[in-house]
Amino acid sequence: MLLAGLFAIGPIGPAQAETVRVRAILDGSYVWRPKTKSISAGTTVRWKAVDGSHTIRSRGSNWSYSANLPQGSAVTRTFNSTGTFRYYCTLHGSVTNGVCTGMCGRIVVS
User: Fold this and answer.
1) Are the C-beta atoms of residues 36 and 108 closer than 8 Å to each other?
2) Count of domains for the chain
3) pLDDT tens digits, residue range 55-71?
4) Stronger pLDDT, 17 or 52, i.e. the higher one
5) Which CATH number belongs to the domain containing residue 105 in this structure?
6) How far is CA 75 from CA 8, 15, 23, 72, 92, in A?
7) Residue 12 within a domain
8) Is residue 2 part of a domain?
9) Residue 44 and which of 21, 64, 84, 99 are 20 to 30 A apart at CA?
10) Residues near 18 by beta carbon (within 8 Å), at least 6 away in sequence
11) Which domain holds residue 70?
12) pTM for the full model?
């Protein structure tokens, strides 16, 4: 009897998706805050251009992404696969021989 009552509860509904925020700010020079963000698969990341206009350009072979962010605007992307996803602002950062300098960031999905 007791076990039948426990199974009558049924499945628990899906968890609410989490949204994390990454901001482009002026801190001596333009930077992504936080520079590195660790999240779980299925999490949505929201980038916002707080100071100035920026771009988000993927870096690496595991994803392809590009977005323009005028000051005050935001863009989101949900990360469903595990891995490290690197990106940079093409206006305030650069990649030379695989090394990113300037406004660089990464999302680590587990």
Assistant:
1) yes
2) 1
3) 999 998 889 999 999 99
4) 52
5) 2.60.40.420
6) 42, 22, 11, 11, 18
7) no
8) no
9) 99
10) 39, 40, 43, 44
11) 17-109
12) 0.80
